[in-house]
């Protein structure tokens, strides 16, 4: 009986601990995909990159996370933003930190559109500068290889898809980039509008994006499209081209219509007619009075 | 005859030698001049020609070395800024979307705005209001800039054409024309305008600046000031001061003609109409027919609770 009780207690404790652990894991874990976890920086984390990172950190991260090692993060937020020099942050891999910066969660915004890839790595370089035991593993990506990549883009109006074809002109001939991450954007005045999801190229180096033809273009319907390719071997490559895939848009200016608030030349017709008639009638009346006075004077003389 | 014949001969030889000397020296000089000229022309490359736009709007191409820089007078600068301020940005219709569910009353927008437009702390182009509309509905924070109406009552009442609407939708005020009658303050249903009752904040420091109608700086005593959608920033393709300063992703700003708005915090660009459709977008006081260019998304699923210390002010709105 006693033995059974102990067994039960042990099982219970183990279960409870597991539950507790699971719950805390759910709260803290970022669920970083395995391939993102092992991603490494192509920028060397040294004093120079850390210094540049500090400026970026001050501008974008300081208001919530506070100064590293000073424990002055914004405590009123839930969850409390951690001090990034702390052990919990430092035990994450570079790839995990990069993923967190990219995606954001809850109150933490995503920085993928705010900071360039190199700026994001420099921010991590700054965070790592507080960890004396950290040893960097550099990415094998050769940044000079990105120049070899060629991106072709065309629009299939029948299927209403945009096809992106990614190849690289290597010394021993043209090779296609397989399984490279491709993102398609339409350029807008203040930023880039993502079209469809981020895709991966297939075995032919092709990525296909759905594009419904409702996006406004310029007067002829041209839209400036931007493709961003991210490949493990070739790094990050961007390419732009103008495609005639938008709705031709030529809206009149907002001051075109006649309105009471518009300038004199654009005043409502009724106002112009009423005002002009008023002035003319008043003027005519004055003339009539003058004429009458003249006639009275004349008859007085007679 | 023979003597006579000889004389000219003698003369002609001397003359010939003289002329030869002149021609020789002349040709050497002339040749070197031509050579120098050719060298000079060679030095002038195509890059040294510049295009200039004359005051009569004629485009000319001339040698850069022939140009002299003429400093523009303050008056010319002012006229230029006023004209560009009235013309606006062709082909654009600017819109702002304010997501009330994200606002945590950080007031960073107000600080950035007052800093940019040299406003006193009590003067607001944008103000974060504490709202409670009925007793049973929850309180929320509501940033309120000028609504940049498409049917602006303030512009209709201005007797001197000081406040005007631009082709791109922005309502501006020209402090050089404003006579301070404050009709527009009375006409605006959103209380978006402020009056410079006293000397402006940076009056001394700003006194040598050329007035920019797209920035309202320097501010001028006895005239109106109002939100400008940061027209000077839009000209550079940048987001307004308030939008860029928000740490909480409250503001979206963009061009209605492009059907895209960009979030000031995350810089993420989304479709304008879809954003309104998915989140139940609305405008303030639509019953007045002012057609605002500022849209609101309701304070649904707030991530940050309304603070108790702000309750009294919210109730003030409720009970008047």
CATH fold-level label of one domain in chain A: Immunoglobulin-like
Q: Describe the sheet with the most strands of chain A.
A: 4 strands, antiparallel
* Unreliable residue stretches of chain B: none
User: What percentage of amino acids of chain B are in beta strands?
Assistant: 15-25%
Helix vs. strand class of chain A: alpha+beta
* CATH class category name of chain B: Alpha Beta
- Choose one word for the global shape of chain A: elongated
Number of domains of chain B: 1
Oligomeric assembly: heterodimer
In total, the number of strands of chain B is: 13
The average pLDDT value of chain B, as a whole number, equals 88
Strand line-up of the largest beta sheet of chain B: 12-11-10-3-13
Structure class of chain B: alpha+beta
Spatial extent as radius of gyration of chain B: 34 Å
What would your notes on this structure say?
The complex is a heterodimer of chains A (302) and B (320). Among the domains of chain A are: 31-128, Cytochrome c-like domain (Cytochrome Bc1 Complex, Chain D, domain 2); 143-243, Sandwich (Immunoglobulin-like). Helices cover 36% and strands 20% of the residues of chain A. Chain A has helices at residues 2-28, 34-37, 47-60, 62-65, 87-90, 94-103, 117-128, 269-301, and strands at residues 149-156, 161-170, 173-176, 181-187, 192-200, 206-210, 223-231, 235-243. The radius of gyration of chain A is 35 Å and the shape is elongated. Chain B has a single domain, classed as 2-Layer Sandwich (Alpha-Beta Plaits), CATH 3.30.70.20. Chain B contains 10 helices and 13 strands. Chain B has helices spanning 2-43, 74-87, 108-116, 153-157, 183-187, 203-206, 231-235, 241-245, 272-279, 311-319; strands at residues 49-53, 59-63, 94-99, 127-131, 140-144, 163-165, 171-173, 193-195, 224-226, 251-255, 260-263, 269-271, 294-297. The model of chain B has no long low-confidence stretch (mean pLDDT 88). Classes of the chains: A alpha+beta (302), B alpha+beta (320). At the A-B interface, β5 of A face α4, β10, β11 and β12 of B.
């Amino acid at each position: 009986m006693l033995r059974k009780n102990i067994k039960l207690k042990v099982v219970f404790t183990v279960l409870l601990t597991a539950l507790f652990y699971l719950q805390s894991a759910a709260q803290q874990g970022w669920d970083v995909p395995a391939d993102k976890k092992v991603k490494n920086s192509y920028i060397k984390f040294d004093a120079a990159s850390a210094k540049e990172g500090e400026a970026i950190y001050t501008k974008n991260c300081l208001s919530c996370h506070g100064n590293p090692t000073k424990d002055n993060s914004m405590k009123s937020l839930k969850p409390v933003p951690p001090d990034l020099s702390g052990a919990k942050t430092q035990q994450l891999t570079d790839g995990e930190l990069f993923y967190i910066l990219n995606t954001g969660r809850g109150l933490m915004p995503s920085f993928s559109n705010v900071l360039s890839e190199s700026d994001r790595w420099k921010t991590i370089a700054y965070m790592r500068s507080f960890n004396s035991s950290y040893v960097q593993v550099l990415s094998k990506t050769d940044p000079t290889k990105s120049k070899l990549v060629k991106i072709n883009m065309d629009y299939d109006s029948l299927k209403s898809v945009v096809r992106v074809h990614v190849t690289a002109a290597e010394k021993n001939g043209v090779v296609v980039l397989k399984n490279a991450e491709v993102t398609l954007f339409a350029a807008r005045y203040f930023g880039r509008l993502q079209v469809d999801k981020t895709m991966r190229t297939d075995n032919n180096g092709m990525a296909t994006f759905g594009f419904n033809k409702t996006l406004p273009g310029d007067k002829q319907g041209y839209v400036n499209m931007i493709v961003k390719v991210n490949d493990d071997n070739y790094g990050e490559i961007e390419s732009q081209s103008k495609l005639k895939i938008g709705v031709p848009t030529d809206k009149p200016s907002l001051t075109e219509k006649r309105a009471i608030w518009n300038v004199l030349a654009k005043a409502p017709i009724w106002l112009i007619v009423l005002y002009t008639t008023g002035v003319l009638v008043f003027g005519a009346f004055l003339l009539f009075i003058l004429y009458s006075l003249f006639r009275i004077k004349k008859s007085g003389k007679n | 005859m023979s003597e006579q014949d000889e004389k000219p001969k003698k003369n002609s030889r001397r003359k010939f030698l003289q002329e030869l000397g002149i021609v020789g020296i002349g040709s050497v000089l002339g040749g070197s001049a031509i050579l120098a000229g050719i060298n000079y022309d060679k030095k002038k490359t195509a890059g040294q020609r510049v295009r200039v736009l004359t005051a009569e709007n004629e485009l000319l191409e001339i040698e850069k070395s022939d140009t002299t820089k003429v400093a523009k007078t303050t008056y010319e600068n002012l006229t230029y800024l006023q004209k560009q301020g009235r013309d606006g940005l062709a082909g654009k219709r600017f819109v702002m979307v304010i997501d009330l569910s994200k606002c945590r009353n950080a007031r960073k927008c107000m600080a950035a705005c007052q800093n940019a437009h040299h406003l006193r702390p009590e003067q607001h182009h944008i103000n974060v209001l504490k709202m409670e509309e009925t007793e049973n509905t929850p309180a929320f924070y509501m940033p309120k800039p000028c609504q940049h109406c498409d049917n602006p009552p303030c512009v209709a009442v201005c007797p001197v054409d000081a406040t005007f609407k631009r082709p791109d939708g922005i309502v501006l005020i020209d402090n050089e024309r404003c006579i301070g009658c404050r009709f527009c303050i009375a006409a605006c249903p959103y209380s978006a305008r402020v009056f410079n009752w006293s000397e402006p904040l940076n009056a001394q420091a700003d006194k040598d600046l050329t007035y920019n109608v797209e920035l309202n700086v320097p501010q001028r005593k006895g005239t109106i000031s109002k939100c400008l959608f940061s027209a000077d920033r839009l000209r550079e393709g940048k987001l307004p001061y308030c939008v860029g300063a928000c740490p909480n992703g409250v503001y979206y700003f963009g061009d209605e003609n492009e059907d895209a708005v960009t979030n000031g915090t995350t810089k993420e660009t989304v479709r304008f109409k879809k954003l309104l459709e998915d989140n139940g977008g609305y405008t303030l006081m639509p019953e007045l027919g002012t057609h605002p260019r500022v849209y609101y998304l309701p304070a649904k699923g707030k991530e940050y609770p309304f603070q108790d210390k702000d309750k009294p002010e919210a109730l003030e709105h409720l009970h008047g």
